[in-house]
Amino acid sequence: MASQDAILQGVSVLGRVQDSQKKILTPQALAFLALLQRSFNATRKNLLERRKVRQAELDRGALPDFLPETKHIRENPTWKGAPPAPGLVDRRVEITGPTDRKMVVNALNSDVWTYMADFEDSTAPTWDNMVNGQVNLYDAVRRQVDFKQGAKEYKLRTDRTLPTLIVRPRGWHLEEKHVTVDGEPMSGSLFDFGLYFYHNAFEAVKRGTGPYFYLPKMESHLEARLWNDVFNLAQDYIGMARGTIRGTVLIETILAAFEMDEIIYELRDHSSGLNCGRWDYIFSVIKKFRQNSSFVLPDRGCVTMTVPFMDAYVKLLIQTCHKRGVHAMGGMAAQIPIKDDPAANDTAMEGVRADKLREVRAGHDGTWVAHPALASIATEVFNKHMPTPNQLFVRREDVSIGQNDLLNMNVSGAITEGGIRKNLNIGLGYMEAWIRGVGCVPINYLMEDAATAEVSRSQLWQWVRHGVTTAEGKRVDKAYALKLLKEQTAELSAKAPKGNKFQLAAQYFSGQVTGEDYADFLTSLLYNEITSAGSPSPASKL
């Protein structure tokens, strides 16, 4: 095996490393990252090129379908995913959020079963956010994350078992530009996964759980295969038994929905199920078919979980997971309490209750909340209707979903000026916060993250591109979109503190709402605004 110094040749850290971060960015950990990058980055880049080829096919009018070459996998009833791992048998309520220290303590103190610590859509990937997040999780795994902020103390509770920690690394498309290997930016996925796994895998097992992950934004089973290869190498490298890692895949792209069996199959020894990433899924439908006028959707408030294409996706996900013996996780309740309006708060919480009731009755094994106050509602609903730790036995053999069901865009509702302005407000509000380094933003009593901002800008692009007419009789064109963007920017900027980033956000947004340019992801578009790469430090000197 090559020496550590040899492996570290060509590895540079361009972000400033604080003393508190040195326990994470050790030469040994960086050597592990370099090994992952050199082993898998070429495959990652090839898979991203494959996405572009697939997009070009869709732009020409092709429609996705179940793959004929993997029919034997779908139709073989005998193979199964891995049995639920320790700490993942009962996942009825999961809380999600970024990895800042306050959030980590509050999430682990919540009355939930797991906490998904998010390096992806609810975190703006500044260097400090990503590395400090790793510091916080390192300390949380070891139960040494308590801290004081002003007069307030944040301490982990000791009166019960803490929720199981699950980490969501960034998707395959994102890079970590503050670390380079052989002159190329590090994969964000491998950076996030590698640091957490290297430092915490054995400690998590010792404490009764394991190194568990949520895997985002995949578009094919080949991308799941890559994660499985990463998992095997990582476990072999540190001397851990294969199959200790678990990965729950977020089905949040329309293309992945046609490959759910195959995705579980590729990860099967490491699979802990699939999750309905609802907002990203809607974003993906608009994005992938943005050139196809048959896929124009109405105001985002009309695109609920009960519209045909969303209902079909949920049913197929539950059926597929339970056929393979793995968890089928429900989606996010993004509401946050409305403290100054009890009537409005009651209405919002009833909406949460109805959503969770729909999920548990459909056969989901658990659900997501964004705020600790919603945990009791979700728990009450799941406890009443799911007295068992999960409902893997609910086979949903009554379900028969085909291509037409997943692509059924029969969604009632109109496109309104109010809907346009709402999308502009959400997109601007989120982008402005993201540029300031904040990845999770309360807007109109909903916790918005990158996925909801993506829905907003993609709808705007789609409406202009296809020249739709609003319910008020106005044709949506480039001039109209830019006029409303200017008005909403001025309104939001006037209400915000001095030094806000709304004008900068609007500059980026203006290129995304005219039906012309379309960035693959907003986070990729904005990333250079939050990088702070300086002079390279050789990894061996840290």
Automatic annotation (TrEMBL):
Residues 415-530 form the Malate synthase C-terminal domain. Pathway: Carbohydrate metabolism; glyoxylate cycle; (S)-malate from isocitrate: step 2/2. Gene3D superfamilies: Malate synthase, domain 3 (3.20.20.360), Malate synthase, domain III (1.20.1220.12). Residues 164-408 form the Malate synthase TIM barrel domain. This is Malate synthase. It is an enzyme of class 2 (transferase). It is found in: Peroxisome. GO terms for molecular function: malate synthase activity. GO terms for biological process: glyoxylate cycle; tricarboxylic acid cycle. SUPFAM superfamilies: Malate synthase G. Belongs to the malate synthase family. It holds the Pfam family MS_TIM-barrel. The active site is at 168 (proton acceptor), 449 (proton donor). Its main location: other. NCBIfam families: malate_syn_A.
